[in-house]
């Protein structure tokens, strides 16, 4: 997680976990103030690694040779001439799984 460390008190479900201890987060939580920016930064880096280029006029539009992606908060709109191209781009993202949750 980038930025300053975030600590939380232990959930009541943790039973014997000492109440005077706190937990340091290793990744952002949904609803945390930095979570949307951190998710966008992660997605942006992975799109670039997969050959996408961010549009200079709109930083939420990413283009590659065959596909495009528009990002709005935590939603992505994918477009291409052939659905197989979109499936090929999404497959590695699905395999990465937990990195995007």
What's the helix and strand layout?
Elements: E1 7-9, E2 22-24, H1 35-49, E3 53-54, E4 61-63, E5 67-72, E6 75-80, H2 83-96
Antiparallel strand pairs: 1-2, 3-4, 4-5, 5-6
CA(first)-CA(last) distance:
13 Å
Largest sheet: 4 strands, antiparallel
- Tally of helical runs: 2
Beta content comes to: 15-25%
| Strand tally | 6
Radius of gyration: 18 Å
Low-confidence stretches: none
Structural class: alpha+beta
Taken from the alpha-carbon principal axes, the silhouette is: elongated
The proportion of residues forming helix, as a percent range, comes to 25-40%
Mean pLDDT: 81
Strand order of the largest sheet: 3-4-5-6
Task: Summarize the structure in words.
- The chain is an alpha+beta fold and 101 residues long.
- Helices cover 29% and strands 23% of the residues.
- The strands form 2 sheets. Strands 3-4-5-6 form a 4-stranded antiparallel beta sheet, with helices on one face. Strands 1-2 form a two-stranded antiparallel ribbon.
- A hairpin with a 6-residue loop joins strand 3 (53-54) and strand 4.
- The radius of gyration is 18 Å and the shape is elongated.
- The chain starts with 6 loop residues before the first strand and ends in a 5-residue tail after the last helix.
- The mean pLDDT is 81.
């Amino acid at each position: 997680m980038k930025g300053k460390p975030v600590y939380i008190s232990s959930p009541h479900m943790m039973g014997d976990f000492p109440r005077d201890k706190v937990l340091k987060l290793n990744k952002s939580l949904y609803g945390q103030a930095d979570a949307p920016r951190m998710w966008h930064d992660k997605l942006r880096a992975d799109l670039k690694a997969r050959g996408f280029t961010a549009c200079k006029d709109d930083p939420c539009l990413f283009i590659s040779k065959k596909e495009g992606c528009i990002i709005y908060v935590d939603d992505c709109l994918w477009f291409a001439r052939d659905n197989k191209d979109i499936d090929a781009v999404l497959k590695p993202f699905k395999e990465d799984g937990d990195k995007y949750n």
